[in-house]
Amino acid sequence: MSVVFQSSSGWVxxxxxxxxRGYQQCIRWADSDKSHVKCCFKWRCFQILxxxxxxxxxxxxxxxxxxxxxxxxxxxxxxxxxxxxxNQGEIDSxxxxxxxxxxxxxxxxxxxxxxxxxGYLTGETDTVEEPLPSQECSLAALCEMAKELPLxxxxxxxxxxxxxxxxxxxxxxxxxxSQVTENKEDWAAVVTMMGEEYVIPPNxxxxxxxxxxxxxxxQCGRKFDxxxxxxxxxxxxxxxxxxxxxxxxxxxxxxxxxxxxSSGCLLVTWVTNRPSHLRFVRDxxxxxxxxxxxxxxxxxxxxxxxxxxxxxDSQHKKPYEVLILGRCPTNTSTRSSERPEIEDKRLIVSxxxxxxxxxxxLSEVLKPYVGAEAKCLELFARSLQPGWTSWxxxxxxxxxxxxFNVTPADTFKDETTDDCAQKPxxxxxxxx
Length: 432
Hints:
single chain, 13-stranded mixed sheet, 5-stranded mixed sheet, 8 helices, globular, Methyltransferase 4, N6-adenosine, DNA_methylase_N6_adenine_CS, nucleic acid binding, site-specific DNA-methyltransferase (adenine-specific) activity
């Protein structure tokens, strides 16, 4: 039920179900004792009930629904511009927006209307009040401290992968900063690491390190059929808020994508709406890796009522983000006809997380283009996914137990049931 609706325009996703699919079977380790638990990501994180702005219905997907918008907090006072003329970046942004506006407006309306007919995006919510989780993430700081430790030379690295559990099923003592950690079990685990509890999905691997300590991931020798990159783009807002460290665009070229990608690997990069970033990925970054751009997709953020979270034509923030898809070089032994064609200008519609920088999982929408058995990697990840390998200096951020409701369970539950679903119950997936 994580893909609510699918058509030629794109997909409507239930992000909460996408997260919870990995925690149907979960064990909690406490010293040498184990117990069955049920882990559900807190549904409150995806209760975006109101549009951020209420500017004459500007945030509505269609005009007739503008009266559905709720009045939000008073808009912040904007500083007066000294000059009325637009700078070049603003001119480029406006031109890009006008180019894609009709595709976004028409496609989102179709997808939202279809989802509503299935009982989704109707604005119905659970009446139980639950505060948003707030966890001070110190992982990046720990990675900075770990940089003081000496690097392990290749010849000294006997094992580049360490298991989360020992052979007898007990929690293992792991070195998170210099080795890839893997949960090879078919069930999730709540484990204590660095004095905090984290929920680790099944069949997942991760490396907690910063940009300068990515070598252990390369040393493992694994090649990936899908690589998703969510760079910490540099911008004024990030500099002012200091919410996370950013990386200059040119530094992204140092990512070892050629060493990590298999023949014909699909590469997907999250990009801000800043024209310079879009041009950099298309004209510099992908060509640097020999990657051919094949499509441009858009993630549309809507409320639980199906309204844009920001007005579509807002000059401040847009209700969409861009994904640039590309294919890595293919060996002559692999026929290009074996790969399905990737359509351009597809839309992914979902209710965004209220937590900063938590993107929706792309696993279900990308599966047809890489295969169900594809090896998948996320770079600059802030969470883990079942069956994926993840890397980043905050790779465990949204795995902290504070983001989950953890309750005792007598035994492993049937995977066909879903007690974690946000109420009202989710409709069946429908494709057109």
